[in-house]
Specification:
It is found in: Cytoplasm, Cytosol. This protein is mainly α. Helix content is about 60%, strand content about 5%. A four-stranded antiparallel β-sheet has the order 1-2-3-4. Strands 5-6 form a two-stranded antiparallel sheet. A hairpin with a 6-residue loop joins strand 5 and strand 6. The radius of gyration is 46 Å and the shape is flat.
Length: about 1100
């Protein structure tokens, strides 16, 4: 220990011995104090600070004549210059000194204040630094700096709260920043960690220090920054702990702010789309809405509902106070809003993982709301709607809530979306009681003042909807029904049509939606008046405003009205009806394409079209006259790609429902080939560009239909073209020949099939997956009922792009063909066989593109379709599939594929081949009595027998169980009258047509039989291949002018290419073409 250190410690001990007796400290010590800072060195700081600490604690400095401010300033200056890390130690000593609070740090210690300001902006301070700086939170600038620093990140915020409670003088808090924006981030941290006492203490401190308004605002801020995943249980528990009584907890909630949010949010609901399906049905047109275009849905409303449910147990049903009423109505509105959320939400923006939670919230909200409906009768509710002042609703929460809802609906016009929700809540009340009401009690107890209700159409619609089951058992509705239908006839001007006309027609439609069996047997509107209404509606549709956008709501209601009439007794409808309905349908379909945002018009028009088509027997002449025009409009709507791009803006249930109606129409009604061919390009575009699987399915199903039709014509045209070119001697003319090609749109759709399946198969829906697989399905449609030559050109096109390999590889990457309990279980209808599935029980051969796999999800359908495509590849690409199979190096994979194929696919192919050969025996033998075909299903053999002078020639085709993964064998056990090398050439040619050129077994048999037939008819064989008939069914038509040997054109062309010269392969002389006298045969 150094000498200064010993001396200073003696001074410290002396000063401490004089504690409480400052007069005992002599002048020497007092005179020494101003000189103490000069002794400070880097290794000698703490002892001088101890001297200062003892001196300040003694209290003698308060009586000294020298300046204590200068002493502290000198200490601060010297320590700052020597070792800044010791400043906190100095300030800690100074801050705890007696009488130090008489000084103003900002005014008296400028250097120290600057240091404190800098410290208050640091985002990472030590405990010692925190103890100092948080003792100065009574300084507004320092406090604001600390608050701002706490917002750097959550860790800084957490530290602030800890240090503030530990070191600050909370009594000195200023009211200057009493607002949520200043403390908001800290409050959020507290609410998110509210289960810990320290954060409860912080919130409680501010709640007591300031008004409760700031505290309630913090609750709102917390909930607005929360989500449906947030667990509010700890928050509710804390809030309950603050309330003097449990019911008082409701006063701590930011209900007013929630109500504002709800009122604003519901105004952005798209009422036009909601008309398609909602509890008020067509009556929603009575709500004017707010004409906002930026429609959107707000999940915050649902979060509010989840949060408020935490306090549902404290809604005292015995009290009808305003807070409880507000909360119950809020519960009801949010529950109904969730209903609309699921209907209107864009599927691209929808978080499906939250669906179950949102549904749970709705169920709970609706349960709480409905639990309030008790201890009342239906007549009491009707009395409230009748504005009966005599009814006593005091202390009855249920009646008070209903009364509040009723008051919101007294306006005749200008109703907002919020009133629409109020009407739906009233309907919930009425429906719950009407369900238990009998016809007798309704007739005797319920008195409806329709005159009063007419002033509030939305309220009237609620009554009509709820009481629909009494329409035909009570005469109370006769007068209002007649009144409403008569009012339609009084609407004349354009303004009246849009307001009164829409109102009266909307209300009348209610009487057609009773849902009771008696409706068909009752005349809702008298026949003579119905004719007058039809005339009136015709005038509306001919008015100057009938094609304005503002008239669309009227069009929708007229469409619904006419469609509802079709659900009754169609035989009694007047002739005027049919013409009006059909022409309205035509007009609407055209407008639906120019107004794609109004899906409601498209939806109701498509429903009318379906109803008209069902009832066409009652108006056959009108229907036949306009049927083609209607179908053309429907097809225009389907193929209108620009409209479907707008559907993406919605991509919700209304869009899905419209697409389902279009699909239903396409499934049930047949479009003409002319219409489909006119829209062929658009249909390919629909399949390849649409992001809606429903629309893709429609496009694919229509293409499936027209491709099969067009292929029949194409085969004929192709054969005619080939016949015209068949006699040409110019072998180089191949480049200009008529070619068979799969459409480029389909090829483009399968090019990136690997990318389509990279991730998409794991999702419930993917338009890329369906586009690729349905395009393959349509490609295989091109292979049905075509000739060998066309098939060869198609196969070459697919081989050139490597598309077949990609498909086959993908099938066994995505489908587990070893799991018998998975998709394989759905591939047959019988008890599973250990070896083969019988053809009649095998479902892999059946796929309906119109309906998919009924009862199974999209993912299952796509995997099933992959296996179906594998079956089709066996059927049409057998030799190529065999080549792909033989190229597989993975032995385990190869065994799995072979086992699956033998069990599920090959039996179908073999069975079909044998069946086709059996059906085609006459064609194959060309009615030659010397030739016969024998088919053995047991041995999977086909024998082609030729009888010559009571001796036989035979060719036997044996089909293996794994065909076409394994080659068929073509054998000739019996030969007569044919040289051996020629016989072998015929057998080899028949073998090649199956195994190398993807021909069918029927074509192989046909080739062999015709070779035999032509041989014995005197035709010469080709000097190159030794066959009379080439694989393309042509005869040797090219003759060497020197040696006179004959050759097939195709064989000669190959010889020229391989030899590099146009010389005869036998005599080597130059080959000059001449046309033979005989004409070649073409397939």
């Amino acid at each position: 220990m150094s000498q200064p250190d010993i001396a200073f410690r003696i001074i410290v001990l002396f000063i401490q011995s004089c504690s409480g007796k400052p007069d005992r400290i002599g002048s020497n010590v007092r005179n020494l104090m101003p000189n103490v800072p000069s002794f400070i060195e880097p290794i000698f700081i703490e002892t001088p600070i101890e001297v200062l600490s003892a001196f300040l604690d003694s209290g003698c400095h308060m009586k000294d004549t020298f300046s204590i401010k200068e002493l502290i300033g000198d200490f601060f200056f010297k320590i700052s210059a020597t070792d800044e890390s010791k400043i906190p130690l100095l300030l800690s000593v100074v801050g705890q000194a007696k009488g130090f609070d008489q000084f103003d740090v900002r005014a008296d210690f400028a250097d120290i204040y600057r240091y404190l300001l800098e410290l208050s902006t640091k985002d990472n301070i030590s405990e010692t630094e925190a103890a100092i700086i948080f003792s100065y939170t009574n300084d507004q600038v320092i406090f604001e700096n600390l608050i701002n620093t706490s917002k750097t990140n959550e860790e800084c915020g957490l530290k602030f709260i800890e240090y503030f409670l530990k070191y600050s003088n909370t009594d000195a808090l200023s009211q200057e920043n009493n607002n949520i924006s200043f403390y908001g981030d800290l409050f959020l941290i507290c609410w998110r960690n509210i289960e810990k006492p320290i954060y409860q203490d912080f919130l409680s401190l501010f709640a007591k220090k300031f008004s409760s308004v700031l505290f309630i605002e913090s609750v709102y801020q917390y909930t607005s920054n929360s989500s449906l995943k947030t667990d509010f249980s700890s928050v509710s528990k804390y809030l309950l702990s603050l309330a003097e009584y449990p019911n008082n907890v409701l006063k701590l909630l930011p209900l007013e702010k929630y109500f504002v949010v709800i009122k604003q949010a519901v105004e952005y609901i798209n009422l036009d789309l909601l008309t398609i399906a909602n509890p008020l049905e067509q009556n929603i047109f009575l709500v004017k809405g707010n004409s906002k275009e930026n429609f959107h849905l707000d999940l915050f409303l649902i979060t509010i509902g989840k949060f408020l449910l935490e306090f549902s147990d404290y809604l005292d049903s015995s009290e009808s106070n305003e807070i409880v009423i507000d909360i119950l109505i809020t519960f009801g509105i949010i529950a109904e809003y969730i209903h609309d959320y699921f209907f209107l939400q864009n599927n691209d923006n929808r978080l499906s993982v939250l669906d179950d939670q949102i549904l749970f919230v709705r169920t709970k909200l609706l349960t709480v709301f409905k639990n309030n409906i008790k201890g009342i009768n239906l007549s009491s509710l009707v009395s409230i709607m009748n504005e009966d002042q005599s009814i006593n609703i005091n202390n009855n929460l249920c009646l008070t809530v209903f009364s509040r809802l009723n008051k919101e609906m007294t306006k005749e016009s200008g109703l907002s979306n919020l009133e629409m929700y109020h009407a739906r809540l009233m309907k919930i009340y009425l429906d719950s009681l009407v369900e238990l009401e009998t016809s007798q009690s309704f007739e005797s107890d319920v008195v409806i003042n329709f005159n009063r209700l007419l002033s509030s159409p939305l309220k009237l619609s609620v009554v009509l909807l709820s009481f629909s089951k009494f329409y035909f058992t009570s005469n109370k509705f006769d007068r209002i029904r007649n009144y409403l239908s008569a009012e339609i006839l009084g609407v004349k001007s354009d303004t009246q049509i849009l307001e009164d006309g829409l109102k009266w027609l909307t209300l009348v439609i209610n009487f057609f939606n009773s849902g009771v069996d008696e409706q068909e047997n009752h005349e809702i509107i008298p026949f003579h008046r119905l004719n007058l209404i039809f005339n009136q509606l015709s005038k509306w549709l001919e008015s100057d405003i009938s094609y304005n956008e503002s008239f669309i709501s009227v069009r929708c209601q007229i469409t619904r009205f006419l469609n509802d009439l079709l659900h009754g007794n169609n035989e009694n409808l007047p002739d005027k009806f049919w013409g009006l309905a059909i022409h309205l349908c035509l007009d609407n379909l055209g407008i639906a394409q120019t107004e794609p945002n109004h899906l409601e018009l498209q939806y109701f028009t498509l429903k009318l079209f379906i109803s008209l088509n069902k009832a066409q027997k009652y108006h056959n002449d009108d229907w036949n006259e306009n049927r083609d025009s209607l179908y053309e409009e429907i097809l225009d709507l389907i193929a209108n790609d620009s409209n479907h791009l707008l559907d993406l803006d919605y991509n919700n249930q209304p869009v899905y429902l419209c697409h389902e109606l279009l699909k239903r129409i396409c499934n049930d009604y047949k479009f003409s080939a002319r219409l489909l061919n006119d829209k062929l390009t658009d249909l390919y575009t629909l399949l390849s560009n649409s992001k809606f699987i429903g629309l893709q399915r429609i496009g694919a199903s229509l293409l499936h239909e027209i491709i099969l039709t067009n292929q029949q014509d194409f085969v004929v045209e192709y054969q005619l073209q080939k016949s015209n070119l068949g006699s040409s001697d110019n072998l180089d003319q191949d480049d200009g020949l008529f070619k068979a090609e799969i459409p480029e749109k389909l090829i483009a759709s399968i090019q990136l099939i690997d990318n389509a399946f990279a991730d998409s198969i794991e999702f419930e829906t993917s338009h890329e997956v369906s586009k690729a697989l349905w395009s393959w399905y349509l490609i295989f449609d091109h292979f049905k009922n075509i000739t060998y030559s066309i098939r060869s050109e198609y196969v070459n096109q697919l081989k050139a792009g490597g598309y077949i390999d990609k498909l086959l590889n993908l099938i066994f990457e995505l489908v587990d063909v070893t799991n018998s309990s998975g998709i394989l279980k759905k591939l047959h209808t019988s008890e599973e066989s250990n070896y083969k599935i019988k053809p009649n029980d095998n479902l892999i051969q059946s796929y309906n593109i119109n309906h998919g796999i009924v009862g199974e999800p999209f993912k299952f359908e796509m995997k099933f379709l992959l296996l179906h495509l594998y079956y089709l590849s066996f059927q049409y690409l057998g030799s190529y599939v065999q080549s792909w199979f033989n190229s597989i190096r993975d032995r385990q994979l190869k065994q799995k594929i072979e086992k699956f194929s033998i069990k599920y696919v090959s039996p179908l192919i073999v069975h079909k081949i044998l069946e086709d050969v059996s059906k085609s025996k006459d064609k194959l033998t060309n009615k030659d009595e010397n030739m016969s075909i024998k088919v053995s299903s047991a041995a999977n053999e086909i024998k082609s027998v030729y009888l010559i002078d009571e001796q036989t020639m035979e060719m036997v085709i044996k089909i293996p169980d794994s065909y076409p993964l394994s080659n068929v064998s073509v054998e000739g056990p019996l030969r007569i009258g044919v040289k051996e090398n020629q016989w072998k050439a015929w057998l080899l040619a028949s073998q090649r047509i199956i195994s190398l050129t993807n021909g069918s077994i029927i074509e192989s048999i046909e080739l062999f039989n015709r070779n035999v037939n032509l041989h014995f008819s005197g035709f010469e064989d080709c000097a190159i291949c030794y066959s009379i008939l080439h694989q393309d069914h042509s005869l040797p038509s090219k003759t060497c002018p020197t040696c006179l040997n004959k050759f097939h054109a195709a064989c000669l062309y190959k010889w020229f290419k391989s030899s590099g010269a146009s010389t005869c392969p036998l005599c080597r002389s130059a080959f000059n073409f001449r046309t033979p006298k005989s004409v070649g045969l073409n397939a």
